[in-house]
Amino acid sequence: MKRNTLIGAGVFTLLAALSFAGCHHRSPEGRIGWFVEEAADRLSLDAVQRERLEEMAKEALERKKQMHADRESIRETLMVELRKEHMDRAVLDGVVLEKRRQMDEMTDYLVDSAVAFHEMLTPEQREKLVSELEKFHTRAEKYGHHRW
């Protein structure tokens, strides 16, 4: 059980780190495309696994876009409150609660995706994933980047 939890956390970390902080790609589409290519190549995914990973990546990207779609309305709400003599705590709490709800939904989706991704891998691919994560961690520590 502990090993599965550790592997699930590792997959989640890999998905999150590579999806949202992919090296040199400037757009979210570029970062997630890079991640899918890297994962498919490094883990030798078959066509079905690759297609499922692409679906997960596309869904994550759509959820991210939806999450960021309301930024302007949040900014406007905050600007209105800042212009008032007395800010309305209930309005601010509502904005924060909505953002937390969105973040919770995204986190749930990423964890569910990590579990589904892990379950579709063969035992050999899981070992390769762990090996790649260990290499990633070692390189990150070498340069003082403690990612997880």
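Next protein, fold it too.
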Amino acid sequence: MHSCVLPLQKQKTNNMANNKNAIIRYEALDRCLSNRYRRFYIEDLIDACNKALYEYNDRSHKGREQVKRRQVLADLAYMKSEIGFSAPIESKRDGHRAYYFYTDPNYTYRDRPLKQDEIDKLYEALVLFRRFKGVPQFDWLRDMEERLYTTSQLGDNTDSVVSFQHNEYLGGMEFFQILFQSIINHRVVEITYRPFRRPERTWVVSPYYLKQYNNRWFLIAKRQDFDRLSNIALDRIVNVKETSKAYEPTDEDFTDYFCDVVGVSVSDKPAQKVVLRVEDKTVGYIQTKPLHESQVPRMQHLPDGRWEVTLNAVQDNYELRSLLLSFGSEIEVVEPISLRDEMRQIVEDMSKRYSQE
């Protein structure tokens, strides 16, 4: 599969990594500055930051650009500033060098009180996260919200202005937590599954990934009796139990795995270029909410008033056809011919049904 990481996604990923690395540096500096039994010169602080980054990044930081003197001095200045942590950092000359320390022997950056604006921002985030009701992994947010509510100035005002789409009748969510923990801890599970209109069956699987699509949750896992990965709908699961069987690891990148599809149905079919003709009144919607991440931003205006929209690489699957059908007559598939023929057959079958008395 081709790489589907967009520039904006890369930028977000880099920002997250930079923020994590900054926190690791602050914690390393905090440990040094609070140590009353040793003097830490700038070289020691640099070494401590690099060692912490090296350990935190699973030793993969080695060989990358190392933290320099300028970065550590900037970190110290930020920690000392009011917009940072107001840390009581001082330096003292020792010959031609200076060592750094906290003037308050009881201070640690980890115990600093939250500022009011930080509390408010946390509460806002928790109000948003709380909308993920039905997902057991987020139950801890309820207690956190109650604690923050007493110190937040926002009150209940945010409750009535935010809403997320949510299927309150979705089954299988009681298994979310055990599946989540099994993925994290590399545990094999035995799943009892009840397909629509077919008998129950039992699978032994190595679970890898949980994905939500169209208000349903799916487990991506490797069944012991099947060579390919399977997507298992949580709302069809009857029971889950951990086993002591050997876990089969995977090196699959699931961002890339789902790159060529709409939804969760991945097959061996090659990704194809899909060309569509879209009515003028609908093209704005498709432009602001692309049908697939490979959709070409530039659309061609056709002589008949419609627009040509191209998806560079997407698999033909049930979810793609359902998405295209949801636009009714506003979208016409031009190519590939195989997909056009499938859509024509579906429309003809629908026409026959509606023409029956």
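About the second fold: Residues 5-13 have pLDDT under 50 and may be disordered.
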